[in-house]
């Protein structure tokens, strides 16, 4: 709707404040205007918010005009309340409530009486506005979404609350602010700076020109347009593939760290958080504590990564020199690691070297590598810290520093962690052997998994994943152009890449090959348990897949998580391969049957099992609904204080508490002790 706004035109807003100079001085001590007999009217110029484009220049987010009815309670005179309420289609009780609220904010300052009139309401009210002293119309612009995807990437716009106004005096009642996503991260860039004009009025309320030739006036600074790294076609495709499923997809360009797609499912149409229905719709999304549409799984879901983690076990083993490419271990359908402890393996058994170990995903092979790595050091404490240090060089166990509201650190245990569980050094490599196959105390988010694959694709370095590609007229943050080099030498990545390539040719992803594209990938299955009345109950496994492609000169690294999706090869691997095909071949998907199966496939029945109490005693159902009520109450408080970010955190913590992912073959797991 750019045509509604001439480009570069400052949206000059209508009347704002009529106040005596005395009040002006109270509002702003630095504003040294001496009182005289005239009144001053402050007019704000709200610049139009910057537009948002995708990496190929496609317009994603524009603006549309919106009209708020503002009120200055002190100025209300001779109001025909009945007529007024009829025009606006509100009850008298509503009216009183709104006026009281405005008075509490300030009797002399303007506040929003009724936000975001539609065109019809605006037209009806506009005709009569003169009659209603103390009320006026404030024109603003709201977001106008050109696509119905990417809600989690964009975030949304909302009215500032009292807490924000107190903390950031720039904002006045009724002003809009970006929350979540890029709207929050790039708020100041997108918003611009509003201008202020001081106009003089005589005692007949007639405008007699700028106050003091406008020496106190400021000019509005236009919001800047931004270009995201997102490929909106890929984003659309990912959201379509994840329909009727829960999970996340993160796709990164390895060469740059640019985020190509960030999908979370379920999601929602960003347009439902615009306009008068905003608040109602937001509350509904927030209160959906079962499918949690506001929980960005790509950034926030922490899981034991499972088999994809074996890539790191191998790299650390190679770097520490405890294995080389030719080192062999025998798999006896598992790995005996002393005192009757056994880690099972379904690879078929036999002699395993690095290459076969990777594409057959042999637990015994990686158990051995991990044991050797830790045991290389004089004490297990030193071993774990060395291992942990290597992992941290991949950006694991910490916030990644991307430009979206903060996600999760994941977890990379150090020796201190185990010392707490086993005081006086009562632990060794075999105690923590499940770490070798990504099922111990290690936790990773999908974006960390995708970044790990980008690092492997680059043979040892990565750029911090980011969503900003260009800001009009200004460079993007230098930190996104800084290369992070891991502690693993470049030479050790080649054999790993060859193994990952054969996952497609000979291994678990054989069924997800794409003609003409060489893909390197790894399947994963994260077992999924929840505790009911102290009893461990197993839910369907999560399906995980990580990959990059093409093998030579990689263009995309990707992680796909499908909650309760069973084997990696069932959902996550096909979805990964379709995403890769879509991105590399653009519009030609060759495997239309597979595409249809993924798009139409639903895991709702699996999710309903839990909701319907299939796994739960009636008592727990009660407990569950009580928890939901608590969230609702918290939500109310949240609106006052504007801490959506914190509440989101609470939400996900709740999720983690409800559905906890743990490993089966980890009999000596410290957490259980
Ligand atoms: Zn095996």
UniProtKB/TrEMBL annotation:
Penicillin-binding protein transpeptidase domain boundaries: 247-576
One GO molecular-function entry: serine-type D-Ala-D-Ala carboxypeptidase activity
Comp. bias intervals (Polar residues): 654-665
Major subcellular location class: membrane
Any Pfam family hit: PBP_dimer
Entry keywords, A to Z: Carboxypeptidase, Cell inner membrane, Cell membrane, Cell shape, Cell wall biogenesis/degradation, Hydrolase, Membrane, Peptidoglycan synthesis, Protease, Transmembrane, Transmembrane helix
Parts of the chain that traverse the membrane: none
Ranges for region Disordered: 620-673
Membrane topology qualifier: Single-pass membrane protein
Domain of life according to the entry: Bacteria
Compositionally biased region (Basic and acidic residues): 620-653
An annotated GO BP: cell wall organization
Keyword Cell wall biogenesis/degradation: yes
Localisation per UniProt entry: Cell membrane; Membrane
GO CC term, one of those recorded: plasma membrane
Domain annotation Penicillin-binding protein dimerisation: ranges: 46-206
Name of the protein described by the UniProt record: Penicillin-binding protein 2
Organism from which the protein derives: Flavobacterium cauense R2A-7
């Amino acid at each position: 709707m750019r045509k509604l706004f001439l480009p570069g035109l400052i949206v000059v807003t209508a009347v704002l404040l009529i106040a005596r100079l005395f009040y002006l001085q109270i509002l702003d001590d630095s504003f040294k205007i001496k009182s005289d007999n005239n009144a001053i009217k402050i007019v704000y110029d709200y610049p139009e918010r910057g537009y948002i484009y995708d990496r190929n220049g496609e317009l994603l987010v524009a603006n549309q005009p919106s009209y708020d009815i503002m009120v200055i309670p002190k100025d209300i005179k001779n109001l025909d309340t009945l007529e007024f309420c009829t025009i606006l289609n509100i009850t008298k009780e509503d009216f009183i409530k709104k006026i009281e609220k405005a008075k509490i904010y300030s009797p002399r300052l303007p506040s929003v009486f009724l936000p975001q009139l539609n065109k019809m309401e605006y037209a009806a009210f506009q005709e009569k506005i003169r009659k209603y002293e103390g009320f006026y119309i404030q024109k603003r612009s709201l977001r106008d979404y050109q696509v119905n995807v990417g809600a989690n990437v964009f975030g949304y716009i909302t009215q500032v609350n009292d807490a924000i106004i107190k903390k950031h005096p720039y904002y006045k009642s009724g002003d809009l602010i970006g929350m979540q996503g890029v709207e929050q991260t790039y708020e100041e860039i997108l918003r611009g700076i509003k201008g202020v004009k001081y106009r003089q009025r005589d005692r007949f309320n007639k405008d007699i020109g700028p106050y003091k030739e406008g020496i106190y006036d400021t000019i509005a600074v236009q919001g800047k347009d931004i270009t995201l790294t997102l490929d909106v076609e890929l984003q659309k495709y990912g959201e379509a593939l994840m329909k009727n499923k829960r999970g996340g997809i993160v796709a990164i360009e390895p060469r740059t760290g640019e985020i190509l797609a960030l999908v979370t499912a379920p999601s929602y149409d960003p347009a439902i958080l615009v306009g008068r229905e905003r608040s109602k719709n937001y509350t509904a999304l927030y209160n959906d504590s079962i499918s949690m549409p506001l929980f960005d799984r790509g950034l926030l879901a922490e899981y034991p990564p499972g088999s994809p983690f074996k890539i790191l076990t191998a790299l650390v083993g190679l770097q520490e020199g405890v294995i080389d490419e030719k080192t062999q271990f025998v798999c006896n359908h598992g790995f005996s690691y002393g005192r009757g402890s056994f880690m099972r393996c379904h690879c078929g058994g036999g002699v395993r070297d690095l290459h076969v170990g990777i594409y057959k995903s042999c637990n015994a092979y990686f158990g051995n590598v991990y044991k050797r790595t830790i045991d290389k050091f004089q004490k297990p404490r030193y071993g774990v810290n060395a291992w942990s240090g290597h992992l941290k060089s991949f950006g694991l166990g910490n916030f990644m520093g991307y430009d979206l509201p903060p996600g999760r650190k994941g977890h990379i245990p150090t020796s201190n962690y185990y010392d707490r569980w086993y005081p006086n050094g009562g632990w060794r490599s075999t105690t923590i052997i499940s770490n070798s196959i990504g099922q111990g105390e290690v936790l990773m988010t999908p974006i960390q998994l995708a970044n790990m694959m980008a690092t492997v694709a680059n043979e040892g370095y990565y750029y911090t994943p980011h969503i900003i590609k260009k800001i009009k007229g200004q460079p993007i943050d230098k930190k996104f152009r800084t290369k992070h080099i891991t502690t693993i030498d470049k030479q050790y990545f080649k054999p790993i890449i060859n193994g990952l390539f054969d996952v497609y040719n000979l291994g678990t992803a054989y069924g997800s090959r794409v003609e003409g594209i060489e893909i390197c990938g790894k399947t994963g299955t994260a077992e999924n348990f929840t505790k009911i009345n102290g009893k461990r109950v197993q839910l369907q496994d999560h399906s995980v897949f990580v990959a990059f492609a093409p093998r030579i000169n990689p263009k995309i690294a990707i992680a796909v998580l499908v909650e309760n999706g069973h084997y990696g090869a069932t959902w996550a691997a096909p979805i990964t391969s379709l995403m890769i095909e879509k991105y590399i071949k653009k519009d030609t998907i060759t495997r239309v049957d597979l595409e249809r199966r993924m798009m139409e496939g639903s895991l709702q029945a699996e999710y309903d099992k839990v909701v319907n109490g299939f796994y739960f005693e009636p008592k727990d159902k009660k407990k569950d609904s009580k928890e939901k009520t608590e969230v609702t109450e918290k939500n109310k408080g949240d609106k006052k204080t504007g801490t959506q970010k914190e509440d989101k955190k609470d939400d996900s913590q709740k999720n983690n508490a409800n559905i906890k992912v743990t490993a089966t073959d980890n009999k000596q797991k410290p957490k259980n002790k």
